[in-house]
Design a protein that fits this description.
The complex is a heterodimer of chains A (216) and B (282). Chain A has 216 residues and is mainly α. Chain A is 85% helix and 0% strand. Chain B folds into two domains: 209 residues, Rossmann fold (3-Layer(aba) Sandwich), CATH 3.40.50; 62 residues, no CATH class. The chains are: A mainly alpha (216), B alpha/beta (282). At the A-B interface, helix 1 and helix 4 of A face helix 2 and helix 3 of B.
Chain lengths: 216, 282
């Protein structure tokens, strides 16, 4: 596990100039944007970067070689989840640090409620990587991107039509949710955390099953 | 050390059905044309594909149930796969240190320097020969008990191939229980290295012989038409029609040398063996 994590971190290191540039741009744009921009953008970028680690493994049959090292199939899958969680968390923390710095530069004190809201972005992107990992293991990065696009398109479609249906029956979904959790932001966070853990367990189980059957 | 018993795998019309063994302290070669089943056999041994039937035992354990310690006792070269091209040698060294307690980082870096592999260059900037050298160094740097080497000399020039083969001989000398399973399309590499050789064709082992026997007893006879008519055919394995007459592969060279003094008898090598056993006419 440590060896694989080092491998993925070294591959990230190869792009350090790109990351420094992105952080600088985030800082610049974030100064004039809303408070969530830096957090959203960096967490988003890191979750896609996690996908890139599969690209590196796909190129030149690297995955098959890695599995000839003291790395089990389940160990390989586990490392990808740990790497994805660490990377997106790192992106979120850097984004939050930028947010806080900018708030202080503007003479504002950072609000805990805001940080709590931003935490939802982190969990949202964790859900994203929980969906993408099994898909990419199953289909590879190139075909996987198409499948992921399709999955999220279907998801967006369901939300869109769901909202339309609720409108037809004169129910405002967003308002219902905000009423439900009004004054109960911790409850919302707990629900999101439980949902995220559930998604992790399901995704990990599927990934392990796919990996066990996969041939290289 | 490694035992394959009726391993089968089917891809469309191609069916692999292989039984072979790599004994402790021995170097075993697997030779055959492209698409004959060498890589499929290697992938099965390494658990990269799932066989339909049969068994593959590595260190006495089913290859699908190898413990972490047993996996650490394997060193592998795959012809078409290796570390990501975006890494450099220092990265590779650190990764190997994390994966193998016995990885000899000093030896690894010394050998990289000896073989002129730049430690600060990305692997994507390496030539195919440099990559082949690195793959072999990765496989031999943690004191593995069994090396599984699929085309380890691919992309190397003659001088470099000799150096790499010398490295493998040194590896074997360090511990008499070590073993190697190696494939190469360059038969001369195997002639000077292997204790025994398996010849695979169309997914099946068609010959297994000690290399010494192969080099001492196998020969190519070159009879003209009248000589061919008189020739004892019992020890002829394969025959090919040639413009001058025939060329015949035998595994009883001495018999023909003693009984047919006028017959042209050429030393048979593995290349001849492949050519006649696979490409010859009955």
């Amino acid at each position: 596990m440590i060896g694989l994590l080092k491998k993925d971190i070294f591959l990230l290191k190869a792009q350090k100039n790109f990351f420094l540039l992105i952080i600088a741009i985030t800082f610049f744009i974030g100064y004039n944007a809303n408070n969530s921009f830096a957090v959203f953008y960096l967490t988003f970028l890191c979750s896609f970067q996690m996908l890139n680690s599969f690209s590196y493994d796909d190129n030149g049959g690297c995955t098959s070689f890695l599995l000839t090292l003291p790395v089990s199939r389940s160990g390989y899958v586990r490392e990808k989840y740990v790497f994805g969680l660490l990377l997106t968390s790192a992106g979120w923390i850097i984004g939050e640090l930028i947010n806080v710095s900018m708030a202080l530069m503007r003479g504002n004190m950072p609000q805990m409620a805001e940080i709590g809201q931003n935490l939802a972005w982190l969990m949202g992107f964790w859900i994203f990587i929980f969906v993408t990992i099994p898909v990419v293991i199953k289909y590879g990065v190139e075909r996987g991107r198409i499948v992921i696009f399709f999955i999220f398109a279907v998801f967006a479609g369901i939300l869109f039509f769901g909202e339309k249906v609720l409108e037809q029956i004169n129910v405002n979904g967003a308002e219902v949710l905000s009423r439900l959790f009004a004054g109960w932001q911790p409850l919302l966070l707990i629900c999101t955390a439980v949902g995220t853990l559930f998604a992790l367990a399901v995704s990990y189980g599927i990934s392990i099953q796919i990996m066990r059957r996969k041939e290289f | 050390m490694l035992k394959i018993d009726h391993l089968t795998k089917t891809y469309g019309d191609f069916r692999l059905d292989v039984s072979m063994e790599v004994r402790s302290g021995c170097i075993t070669g697997l030779v055959g044309r492209n698409g004959s089943g060498k890589s499929t056999t290697f992938k099965s041994v390494l658990g990269l594909i799932c066989p339909e039937s049969g068994s593959v035992q590595v260190f006495g354990t089913d290859c699908g149930n190898l413990s972490a310690a047993e996996r650490k006792a394997l060193g592998v070269v795959l012809a078409e796969a290796g570390f990501s091209a975006a890494l450099d040698i220092r990265d590779v060294n650190r990764i190997l240190q994390s994966m193998y307690e016995k990885h000899d980082a000093l030896f690894f870096m010394e050998q990289c320097a000896r073989f002129l592999l730049p430690e600060d260059k990305k692997l994507k900037d390496f030539s195919s020969g440099m990559r082949a050298k690195l793959k072999l160094l990765v496989a031999v740097s943690h004191g593995a008990k069994l090396l599984v080497l699929d085309e380890p000399t691919l992309g190397l020039d003659v001088a470099m191939r000799e150096e790499m083969l010398a490295l493998l001989r040194d590896y074997m000398l360090a511990d008499e229980e070590r073993s190697i399973l190696i494939s190469s399309h360059i038969a001369t590499d195997l002639e000077g290295l292997c204790d025994d050789i398996y010849l695979i064709n169309d997914g099946k082992i068609i010959l297994h012989e000690e290399t010494d026997v192969l080099l001492s007893s196998y020969a190519v006879l070159k009879p003209d038409e009248p000589q061919y008519k008189e020739l004892e055919k019992r020890y002829i394995l394969q025959t090919k029609k040639e413009p001058f007459g025939y060329s015949c592969l035998t595994n009883q060279k001495q018999f023909y040398v003693e009984n047919y003094p006028d017959l042209v008898v050429e030393q048979g090598g593995i290349d001849d063996l492949i050519l006649y056993m696979i490409g010859g006419n009955d």
